[in-house]
């Protein structure tokens, strides 16, 4: 949600600022981002300085020499870790700055490069303004982002080969990776199988802004004997000092007590034309160049979590979250870098003609991609992931930062939301209307208006007098309620939450060390500091059922505005010189802030009631690397426009390959009123969002699925039923993400990494490993789409089995009531076909298996099932099966691929009666024509039932549609081993 709305007039703000804001909020805003509220690179001092530094290096090339040199006498290597000291030459007087270097080689084949600054590391600096801030560079980002994968390689070793001025280390499986560290100037090349994949400081842009005291010249007199203003002293490097010591923007002055402290590095990907990642931006998945030119950007990509009002598309502007992971891809290879830094970060992307390499064997791109990373503070801390496949990147990144949390079943079904359902009766009426129109949904949401005067953990006594009754009605259909809780706490009398926050000193502090006061929805507010363990402990107590009265086991939480959004702050967020737990400045931790609040709420939901452990569901708007461990995200406050529908697909795909796949966009668009056609097409697209929620601004017209009327309501209902029908496939994809870091929806390059024509395609998607390929309609009036097929396997229309074959573009008809959805040959897709009112009511329903034969007549797929709510799957309470159809044996088999645990037997017993009720074979073999029976056998069945004949129907190919066949009710248990014999 945003700070501009007609409801803002109810806020009890005082003073001119409040009156002015309230007056402005009476009007529906013009749809446009307010660029003047957000910095450009030229307005961000450290970005401007480092871009200028890069320009100087480029202009002087090849005469430019980087002033960073690794002291060879300082180099040590022990237990898979290389240490040394980089010496930065300053000015012409021979002064050097000592920068400790650590290069750690991990068992996974990942390398980590960390550069610190000795003076700050030792605290041997003087802070300005009597600041209470930490003297060190921020070194705790890994505490929040990293959860594993740091085991040091025992096989890493210094190379026996020697070369003057360099050090070589072999690492990775069988030593196929190599780091070549050049001493003077300092650079690193990372090689795989002898070929350079990634280069550090190849262009000499490395820049660690070292500490230095601020020195003012004596105040001279002018000719009249009057004092003139002091002049600042510049170092002999003639750097621009204007933003070293303080910086103003939007009426706020940042005091910068530590002076300039940016870190920057150029990272090159030789032979790679396409780079992806670094969300969140409203742009295409394959990143554009950022130094101008036709179709390119003039600004770097920015990572600085912010509440961007009505964001624009095709832009490198910052949005709500930041994941500093970039991967480069070409045919035969994928590599990645993870820039572990929580401060404001800018990234330039440049592409140039590649240099030839005799080792490339013709697979390298003719283009090199060169990037320039610039962060305001903190360590230079970079992980290098050498692939070689897209799956390797997401797997290794997930090992470091954690895999997607396995959600409750309801969380991947449909969510109904708007700002706001105005009363508890309103909520119950919406619930009843979904049932009346036979439309499935699982969750209804409450925005800020449910609270008593914007005081979180309370209910408005007039509009929500009986929340228990509301919860009970929802529970009858196994539905849930999500309530919003934001990090700003209203500053008002007789509000126990704010009184405790202040008395326990758990709020974020200003630069003087006092509680920071800003403005948000409640007016005057304080912000809980969730970097503080005591804050998390206190936060947990607020969600107990006896504390947050009116909630129950079917209540879950939405964390919004956690960038943090501060209406009267610089760039609509907190001043950078605010102080967090441990006296770290906000500038150091800004991009992690939202994740700490998300984490605190996740922890709170785990402990609402002693003995009641359920998987939490917490939606977040702000995120960082590692947020995927905690719940879902959405793309923020989009617009009800066709262009925003189109943009949602690459944005969500980019989230998936960047390690946070539980992602979605507001279906229908948050701002504005979509046409009925747009709303319908958006629901069809939303069917393929991992997080599927309809949402709307308070000033928009009601648009629940039953509102548009015929034929739109029926078409939307069919889209929702498709989502529910395929929930078994979706849940299996979520499980794969939870154990391997795989995207839940996947772009073409991820599924077909050698298909060069598809590397930039980001308007169609695959669902997990199912072979389902969707191309949502995102153009007004369209009645067909062009679907790109990357291989020669047969593809079949999901609904009528129309056959498409041959690599290239194919026109698929898509009238308004048709979703373009194809099935790639070679897969087996699990689904449940009985329509229900919520996913919880499907728990004991039978399964249907869609066997989609490939060109060789084979198919394979998996199914994962657990109880959908507890953590008992961690003790073996789940079913995990692999289904295989083998043309050679003419048999379909079910094979257990799960591992037994303490609760396996009990869980399988509860699922004993859940069966497979139908098997559909698409691309059925011609030889089955005329067959009326097949033989089914099941493990553990009684002797008389071990081999039984069941009905079989064959449908021949016709009118471009493939032959298909049906096995009718084989009555085999979903959790058992069995075989269907077609011979």
UniProtKB/TrEMBL annotation:
<dbReference type="InterPro" id="IPR011013">
    <property type="entry name" value="Gal_mutarotase_sf_dom"/>
</dbReference>
<dbReference type="Pfam" id="PF01055">
    <property type="entry name" value="Glyco_hydro_31_2nd"/>
</dbReference>
<dbReference type="GO" id="GO:0004558">
    <property type="term" value="F:alpha-1,4-glucosidase activity"/>
</dbReference>
<feature type="compositionally biased region" description="Basic and acidic residues">
    <location>
        <begin position="215"/>
        <end position="235"/>
    </location>
</feature>
<keyword id="KW-0326">Glycosidase</keyword>
<keyword id="KW-0325">Glycoprotein</keyword>
<dbReference type="GO" id="GO:0017177">
    <property type="term" value="C:glucosidase II complex"/>
</dbReference>
<dbReference type="InterPro" id="IPR000322">
    <property type="entry name" value="Glyco_hydro_31_TIM"/>
</dbReference>
<dbReference type="InterPro" id="IPR030458">
    <property type="entry name" value="Glyco_hydro_31_AS"/>
</dbReference>
<feature type="region of interest" description="Disordered">
    <location>
        <begin position="215"/>
        <end position="260"/>
    </location>
</feature>
<dbReference type="GO" id="GO:0030246">
    <property type="term" value="F:carbohydrate binding"/>
</dbReference>
<keyword id="KW-0732">Signal</keyword>
<dbReference type="InterPro" id="IPR017853">
    <property type="entry name" value="GH"/>
</dbReference>
<feature type="domain" description="Glycoside hydrolase family 31 N-terminal">
    <location>
        <begin position="100"/>
        <end position="348"/>
    </location>
</feature>
<dbReference type="InterPro" id="IPR013780">
    <property type="entry name" value="Glyco_hydro_b"/>
</dbReference>
<feature type="domain" description="DUF5110">
    <location>
        <begin position="848"/>
        <end position="900"/>
    </location>
</feature>
<comment type="similarity">
    <text>Belongs to the glycosyl hydrolase 31 family.</text>
</comment>
<dbReference type="Pfam" id="PF17137">
    <property type="entry name" value="DUF5110"/>
</dbReference>
<comment type="pathway">
    <text>Glycan metabolism; N-glycan metabolism.</text>
</comment>
<dbReference type="GO" id="GO:0005975">
    <property type="term" value="P:carbohydrate metabolic process"/>
</dbReference>
<protein>
    <recommendedName>
        <fullName>alpha-glucosidase</fullName>
        <ecNumber>3.2.1.20</ecNumber>
    </recommendedName>
</protein>
<feature type="domain" description="Glycosyl hydrolase family 31 C-terminal">
    <location>
        <begin position="741"/>
        <end position="829"/>
    </location>
</feature>
<dbReference type="Pfam" id="PF21365">
    <property type="entry name" value="Glyco_hydro_31_3rd"/>
</dbReference>
<dbReference type="InterPro" id="IPR025887">
    <property type="entry name" value="Glyco_hydro_31_N_dom"/>
</dbReference>
<keyword id="KW-0256">Endoplasmic reticulum</keyword>
<dbReference type="InterPro" id="IPR048395">
    <property type="entry name" value="Glyco_hydro_31_C"/>
</dbReference>
<dbReference type="GO" id="GO:0006491">
    <property type="term" value="P:N-glycan processing"/>
</dbReference>
<dbReference type="Pfam" id="PF13802">
    <property type="entry name" value="Gal_mutarotas_2"/>
</dbReference>
<feature type="domain" description="Glycoside hydrolase family 31 TIM barrel">
    <location>
        <begin position="404"/>
        <end position="733"/>
    </location>
</feature>
<keyword id="KW-0378">Hydrolase</keyword>
<dbReference type="InterPro" id="IPR033403">
    <property type="entry name" value="DUF5110"/>
</dbReference>
């Amino acid at each position: 949600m945003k700070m501009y709305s007609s409801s803002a007039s109810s806020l009890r703000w005082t003073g001119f600022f409040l009156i002015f804001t309230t007056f402005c909020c009476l009007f529906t805003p013009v749809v446009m981002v307010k660029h003047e509220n957000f910095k450009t690179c030229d307005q961000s001092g450290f970005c401007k300085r480092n871009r200028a530094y890069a320009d100087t290096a480029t202009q002087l090339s090849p005469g430019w020499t980087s002033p960073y040199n690794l002291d060879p006498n300082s180099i040590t290597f022990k237990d898979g870790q290389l240490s040394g000291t980089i010496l930065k030459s300053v000015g012409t007087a021979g002064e050097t700055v000592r920068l400790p270097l650590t290069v750690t080689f991990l068992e996974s084949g990942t390398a980590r490069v960390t550069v610190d600054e000795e003076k700050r590391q030792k605290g041997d600096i003087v802070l300005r303004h009597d600041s209470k801030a930490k003297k060190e560079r921020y070194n705790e980002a890994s505490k929040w982002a990293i959860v594993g994968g740091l085991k040091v390689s025992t096989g890493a070793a210094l190379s026996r080969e020697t070369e003057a001025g360099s050090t070589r280390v072999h690492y990775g499986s069988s030593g196929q990776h190599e780091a070549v560290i050049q001493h003077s100037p300092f650079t690193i090349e990372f090689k795989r199988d002898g070929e350079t994949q990634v280069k550090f400081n190849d262009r000499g842009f490395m820049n660690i802004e070292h500490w230095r005291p601020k020195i003012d010249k004596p105040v001279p007199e002018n000719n009249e004997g009057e004092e003139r203003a002091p002049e600042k002293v510049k170092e002999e490097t003639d750097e621009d000092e204007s933003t070293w010591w303080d910086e103003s923007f939007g009426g706020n002055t940042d005091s910068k007590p530590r002076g300039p402290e940016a870190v920057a590095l150029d990272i090159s990907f030789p032979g790679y034309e396409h780079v992806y990642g670094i969300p969140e931006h409203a742009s295409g998945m394959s990143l554009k160049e950022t130094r101008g030119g036709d179709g390119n950007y003039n600004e770097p990509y920015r990572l600085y979590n912010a509440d961007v009002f009505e964001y624009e598309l095709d832009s490198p502007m910052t949005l709500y979250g930041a994941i500093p992971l970039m991967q480069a891809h070409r045919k035969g290879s994928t590599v990645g870098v993870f820039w572990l830094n929580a401060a404001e970060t800018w990234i330039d992307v440049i592409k140039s003609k590649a240099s030839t390499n005799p080792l490339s064997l013709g697979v390298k791109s003719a283009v090199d991609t060169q990037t320039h990373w610039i962060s305001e503070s903190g360590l230079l801390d970079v992980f290098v992931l050498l692939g070689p496949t897209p799956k390797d990147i997401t797997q290794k990144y997930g090992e470091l930062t954690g895999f997607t949390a396995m959600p409750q079943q309801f969380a991947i079904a449909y969510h109904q939301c708007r700002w706001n359902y105005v009363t508890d009766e309103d909520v119950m009426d919406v619930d009843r209307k979904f049932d009346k129109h036979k439309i499935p949904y699982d969750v209804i949401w409450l925005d800020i208006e449910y609270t008593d005067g914007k005081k979180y953990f309370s209910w408005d006594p007039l509009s929500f007098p009986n929340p228990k009754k509301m919860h009970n009605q929802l529970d009858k259909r196994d539905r849930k309620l999500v309530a919003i809780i934001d990090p700003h706490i209203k500053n008002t009398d007789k509000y126990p939450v704010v009184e405790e926050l202040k008395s326990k000193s758990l709020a974020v502090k200003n630069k003087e060390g006092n509680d920071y006061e800003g403005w948000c929805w409640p007016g005057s507010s304080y912000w809980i500091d969730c970097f503080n363990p005591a804050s998390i402990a206190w936060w947990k107590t607020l969600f107990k059922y006896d504390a947050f009265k009116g909630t129950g086991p079917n209540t879950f939480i939405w964390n919004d505005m956690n960038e943090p959004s501060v209406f009267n702050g610089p760039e609509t967020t907190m001043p950078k010189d605010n102080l967090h737990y441990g006296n770290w400045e906000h500038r150091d931790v800004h991009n992690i802030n939202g994740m700490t609040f998300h984490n605190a709420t996740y922890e709170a939901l785990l402990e609402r009631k002693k003995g009641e452990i359920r998987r939490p569901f917490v939606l977040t708007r702000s995120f960082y690397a590692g947020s995927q461990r905690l719940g879902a995200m959405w793309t923020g406050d989009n617009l009800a426009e066709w262009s925003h529908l189109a943009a949602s697909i690459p944005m969500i795909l980019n989230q998936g390959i960047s390690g946070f796949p539980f992602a979605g966009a507001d279906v229908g668009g948050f701002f504005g009123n979509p046409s009925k056609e747009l709303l319908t097409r958006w629901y069809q697209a939303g069917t393929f969002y991992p997080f599927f929620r309809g949402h709307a601004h308070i000033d928009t017209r009601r648009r629940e699925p039953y509102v548009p009327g015929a034929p739109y309501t029926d078409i939307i209902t069919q889209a929702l039923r498709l989502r529910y029908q395929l929930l078994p496939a979706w849940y299996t994809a979520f499980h794969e993400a939870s154990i391997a870091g795989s995207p839940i929806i996947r772009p073409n390059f991820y599924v077909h990494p050698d298909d060069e024509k598809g590397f930039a395609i980001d308007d169609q998607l695959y669902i997990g490993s199912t072979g389902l390929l969707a191309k949502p309609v995102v153009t007004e009036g369209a009645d067909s789409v062009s679907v790109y097929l990357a291989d020669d396997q047969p593809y079949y229309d999901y609904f009528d089995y129309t056959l498409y074959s041959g690599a290239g573009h194919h026109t698929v008809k898509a009238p308004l009531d048709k979703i373009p959805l194809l099935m790639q040959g070679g897969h087996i897709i699990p689904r449940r076909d009985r329509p229900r009112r919520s996913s919880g009511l499907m728990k004991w329903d039978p399964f249907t298996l869609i066997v989609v034969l490939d060109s060789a007549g084979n198919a394979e797929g998996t199914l994962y099932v657990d109880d959908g709510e507890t953590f008992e799957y961690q003790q073996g309470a789940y079913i995990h099966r692999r289904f295989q159809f083998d043309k050679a044996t003419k048999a379909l088999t079910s094979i257990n691929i799960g591992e037994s645990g303490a609760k396996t037997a009990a869980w399988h017993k509860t699922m004993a009666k859940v069966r497979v009720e139908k098997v559909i074979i698409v691309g059925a073999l011609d030889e089955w024509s005329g067959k009326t029976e097949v033989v089914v056998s099941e493990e553990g069945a009684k002797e008389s039932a071990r081999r039984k004949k069941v009905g079989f129907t064959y449908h021949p190919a016709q009118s471009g549609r493939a032959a298909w066949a049906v096995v009718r009710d084989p009555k085999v248990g979903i959790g058992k081993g069995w075989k269907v014999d077609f011979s």
